[in-house]
C-alpha cells in the first residue's frame, strides 16, 4: 500500500552499509542492527538509517529494530549461519516479513527453502570484475525486469554515430542513451558520443542490433 | 523525509543555515502579530509570557534534538512519531501537526494584512488603519474585507509559488532571517534610546482584575511564536554533519529567538505601553515603531516604515515556511499510506507535492476568515498537543529501544520530556478553558478537525481493507545503480 518500504538490515559492514545507502537513496526507511561501536559511529555520520546497537540474533534487539512493522529484513553479515538465524528469528517474530540472507558460497542457494532470497555479494562482485577483466566494449549490466537490456557500450572509432551529438543522431524508437561518457551524468540532448567513451544504453531487444550498428559500426 | 528529496551526497547547509531556518520560521508572525494581543491579555507581563514560553518549549526542543539526531529522517515530528507509534497514534500526530501548520499559515496571513496596510498608510497611500484593530468588533466594516482580501491573496500567492516550483534554498532563508533580525535589532536600538523608553512604565505588571493568572492564557495564545525550530528537523538530510549540527541548531535558534523576543517585547511595552500595544492589535510592533523611530529620512521617509516593512517581510517569509511545512506533513502521510496515496506523489511536471500543497491551501484559505486571536489560539493548541506526543515518543523510544544509537542524548533524562509533557498539558488545558470562556468558535473548529480526522482514518482503513479497490501506488522511480 505504501510506496516506501520499512527495511531492517542486520550487519552494517561493507555490504550492509552500501545496501543501506542505496535503499535510503531510493527513499526507503532503513534501520541497521550493528554490534561494533566503531561501525555504528560511521553509519551515524552518514545519516541514512536509524541504528540499533547489539547482537542481531537477539530477539529483543530484532524487536527494537521494529520487526513488527518491517516489510523486509536483510541479514548481510559475513557469517552465513548467523544470517540464516537472523532471518529465521525474524520470520518467527513477524511471519509476513520478507527475508533476505547473504551467503558466502554457491551451496547457500539451497537456503531459499528457509528465506525468500539469498545474495552472494562475492559472486556479484566477481561478475563485475570479470566484465572489467575482459574489458569488452559491450557489457550487459544487471538483470533487469522484462526483456529490456541495460548495457554499457563503448562507441567505436568510425561508427555512424561516433563524434555526433545526440540531437543529430536518430536512434530507433525503443532505444535510450542513458548516461554521458563514463556515466557521471544523465545524457542531455547536447551529449556527444565520443569515440572510445562508454555509455549506458537501454534497448529493446528488437532494435539492439540497430543501436549496435550506430554505436559500434 | 521519505523520498521527497534526493539525498544529496554533499550536504549544503551548515550550522548557521540550519539555525537560520529555525529562527526564520519562529521570528515572524509570533512576535509581530501576537505581541499586541498578548499585551491585551497580560499587560506589561507580556514580557514574562514570552520568557516563560521559551522555557516551556525548550524541554520539547531537547526531545526534538534527541529524536532528530537518532532518526535520520527529514520528516520532522511526524516522521519521529511514526517510527515508534502505531498507525492510529501516528495518524493523529500527523493530522494535528498538519492542521497546526495550516492554521499557523492563516495566522501569519492575518498578521501580514494589517501590517501591509500600515506600511501603505505610512506612505500615505491609504487612510490610517482602523484605530481599534481586531480587538473590538470593528465599527468600520470597510477595513475588514480589505485586510481579509490581502491575507487571502498572500496565501494564494505563496501556495501558487510553492505548487509550481520547488522551495528556495536554505541559503536564501539565511539571508531572509538576517534581514529580519537586523530590522528588529534596529527597532530595539532606537527604542532603548528613545525618550519614551526612559519613562517606561512596567507597573502594574499585571492587568487589573486578572492578576498573575492572566499570564497563562497569554502564554497559550503566543505559544505559536516558538513554533519553527521544529522545521530544522524537516531539512536534516541537507545539513552537513547532522547529528552534531541539528541539536546545536535547535538550541542556538531557540536561545537567539528568546533573546530577540525579550528585547523586542520589552522595548514595545516600554515605549508604547501595554494599553497602546493592545489597541494596535496585530500591528502592535509596527505601531510602537512608528511612535519612536526617526522621521524625515531619505527614501524611506519614516524610520517606522522600516519596522513595518520588517513585519510584512517576516509574516510573508514565515507564511512561506509553513506552506512548505504543512504540505510536507501531508506529503509524508501520503507516503506512509496514512492519507490517500495522491498526497504522497510528486507532480510530474512541477516536481512539487502538488496535491499536498493544494489541500493544505484549502484549510489555510478558510482560516484567514477567522479572527486573528482564534487562529493564534487554535494553532497554539495543536502545536501544544503535537509537542506532547513528541515528548512521549522520546520516552517510549528510550524504554522500548534502549539499544538504539543516540548520537545526542538529552541530559537529566527522564526529567525534560516529563516536564515538557506536564507544562504543555497545563498550557493546553488553560487554553481550552480559556477558549470555552471566550472563543467557542475556535474550540468547535478544533474538535471538528479531530472528528474529521477520525472519519478520514476510518474511511482510509476501509478503503485499504478492500484490495480490489483500484488504488494506484506511488511508484518510486528506481534506477539501477551502475558501478563501474
From TrEMBL, chain A:
Do the record's keywords include Ion transport?
A: yes
Which parts of the chain are coiled coil? none
Name the GO terms of the biological process aspect.
potassium ion transport
Q: Which residues form the RCK C-terminal domain?
A: 136-217
Q: Which UniProt keywords apply?
A: Ion transport, NAD, Potassium, Potassium transport, Transport
What is the purpose of this protein?
Answer: Part of a potassium transport system.
Q: What name does the UniProt record give this protein?
A: NAD-binding protein
State the organism named in the record.
Answer: Halobaculum halobium
TrEMBL record, chain B:
Q: Which InterPro entries match?
A: AA/rel_permease1, APC_superfamily
The record describes its membrane topology as: Multi-pass membrane protein
PANTHER family per UniProt: AMINO ACID TRANSPORTER-RELATED (PTHR42770), INNER MEMBRANE TRANSPORT PROTEIN YBAT (PTHR42770:SF11)
ATP-binding: present as a keyword of the record? Answer: no
State the UniProt keywords alphabetically. Cell membrane, Membrane, Transmembrane, Transmembrane helix
Q: Under which name does UniProt file this protein?
A: APC family permease
Its transmembrane ranges are: 20-39, 45-67, 88-110, 142-163, 175-197, 209-229, 249-269, 306-331, 352-372, 378-397, 418-436, 442-460
Superkingdom of origin: Archaea
